[in-house]
Write a structure and sequence with these properties.
elongated, alpha+beta, single chain
Length: about 100
């Protein structure tokens, strides 16, 4: 793909049972899984020469939590991925991750 091209990736969140049910799922991903391919790779840029700029990352919650959250606020919390994945990942479970990246050459 050329520089500036966009990649969209949709995958189960690691806290959803569908991440573990499909035998082809070899890795279980969270919203930070692709940081190694960006500018903030934390010194782990040697995994690949591929580079992407993170445009957006969305964690869709299980229906129960989407409905419960809608009663509090219609807008997602800005710190939801960090809060969800660091402190309450197996209580407020994610369903789907949606990533969008721009290719950097």
């Amino acid at each position: 793909m050329r520089a500036g091209g966009r990649v969209r990736l949709v995958t189960p969140h690691y806290t959803d049972f569908s991440s573990f049910c499909d035998p082809t799922h070899r890795w279980h991903l969270n919203s930070f899984s692709f940081r190694y391919f960006g500018e903030r790779h934390g010194g782990f840029g040697y995994y690949s020469r591929a580079r992407f700029r993170e445009i957006s990352v969305h964690v869709k919650l299980l229906a129960f939590w989407r409905i419960a959250r809608a009663g509090v606020s219609g807008e997602p919390l800005p710190a939801l991925p960090a809060l969800l994945e660091h402190y309450c990942c197996y209580v407020v479970r994610g369903k789907v991750l949606e990533f969008e990246f721009e290719v950097v050459k």
